[in-house]
Amino acid sequence: MDRRERERPRVVLGVSGGIAAYKACELLRRLTESGHDVRVVPTASALHFVGEATWSALSGNPATTEVWESVHEVPHVRIGQAADLVVVAPATADLLAKAAHGLADDLLTNTLLTARCPVVFAPAMHTEMWENPATQENVATLRRRGALVIDPAVGRLTGVDTGKGRFPDPAAIFEFCRRVLARGPRAAEQDLAGRHVVVSAGGTREPLDPVRYLGNRSSGKQGYALAGTAAARGARVTLVAGNTELPDPAGVDVIHIGTARQLHEAVLKAAADADAVVMAAAVADFRPAVYTTGKIKKVDGQEPEPVTLVRNPDILAEISAERARPGQLVVGFAAETDDVLANGRAKLARKGCDLLVVNEVGETKAFGSDGNEAVILAADGTETPVPYGPKEALADTVWDLVAPRLAETRP
């Protein structure tokens, strides 16, 4: 059957021998329940942690463990050839080393050599192993060849150890894989590989007293979609997130902030070596001039004192006017309620950014929803309308416009 005719994307889940192998069961469940045809290929070491029967029962397919099983089907070649995605979770230091050096001493490493689809690695190991120069060189080699290696999380490891090396959240890995698969044949292009992008997301809150603040309705979903899709296209992503309830995306460095001034500081610092900065956060234009250290009391018969506001830093205008490095691309967002395009064009000229994503907002539009529509205005006068659809689709369109512009500046 031609791959385009399949109704269920074929995913190979490779599992190597780390204690985090049991967490891969949750990833497997999410993949199968969302309609993917999953074949599990565990290493011999992985079977010490989770048995073959578990993998078979959860996937609905036989778990293939040996090169010598069903030899007439040539599994060491066919499994990788037929896959739409290969994800290795967890990927141990040993597995990463074998993959980087092209070793093929078991079924999983043979599958990696024959795969012609996107390959995702989700490492999990002790901090010292992850930070070892040998491991870092192996990761760099894999990324240079087009593989997607998700940085491990920071947290509790085996025993009492804590540090970077923790298996990323299975839900976040699933979302990462879903975004890679959604790009279809284009997923192998990795057009943002080797690039560092900074994305801001969410809304800022400007405190008035210990219990009250001036804020907005932003959920952060569009910014998180931009960060996740950029990571799936090979970028190193720094996400500066303000006041959201969303889980951190896999493979993304997240900096959590609260106020506009904190966002300003974090974005400028992260942008110092960034190829592109996308300001999707809803930044408060103003903040209370005075912060009251105690709760402002309601007094019967008296109106409250007026709240005086002062301007917050204009982050988009500042980073557009003072690019941290030559060729840096800046993308802004404009949330408008009326005269959407006219106001957007005026803002593009005023801010000086390269691209401006203009969308209409209101109580039932954009904020908090899973979908969005917009028009992307460019400084060269072109306009790209994006019809209503998932926020990931708008995010991919933004990167579709950013990537070729960055390619023009690559030495």
Automatic annotation (TrEMBL):
It catalyses: N-[(R)-4-phosphopantothenoyl]-L-cysteine + H(+) = (R)-4'-phosphopantetheine + CO2; (R)-4'-phosphopantothenate + L-cysteine + CTP = N-[(R)-4-phosphopantothenoyl]-L-cysteine + CMP + diphosphate + H(+). Binds 1 FMN per subunit. Residues 192-403 form the DNA/pantothenate metabolism flavoprotein C-terminal domain. Pathway: Cofactor biosynthesis; coenzyme A biosynthesis; CoA from (R)-pantothenate: step 3/5; Cofactor biosynthesis; coenzyme A biosynthesis; CoA from (R)-pantothenate: step 2/5. It comes from the Bacteria. Its EC number is 4.1.1.36, 6.3.2.5. Residues 10-178 form the Flavoprotein domain. GO terms for molecular function: phosphopantothenate--cysteine ligase activity; phosphopantothenoylcysteine decarboxylase activity. Its cofactor is Mg(2+); FMN. Keywords: Decarboxylase, Flavoprotein, FMN, Ligase, Lyase, Magnesium, Metal-binding, Multifunctional enzyme. CTP binds at residues 285, 295, 313-316, 333, 347, 351. Residues 1-196 are annotated as: Phosphopantothenoylcysteine decarboxylase. Residues 197-411 are annotated as: Phosphopantothenate--cysteine ligase. In the C-terminal section; belongs to the PPC synthetase family. Catalyzes two steps in the biosynthesis of coenzyme A. In the first step cysteine is conjugated to 4'-phosphopantothenate to form 4-phosphopantothenoylcysteine, in the latter compound is decarboxylated to form 4'-phosphopantotheine. This is Coenzyme A biosynthesis bifunctional protein CoaBC. It comes from Streptomyces decoyicus. The lineage of its organism: Bacteria, Bacillati, Actinomycetota, Actinomycetes, Kitasatosporales. The gene is coaBC.
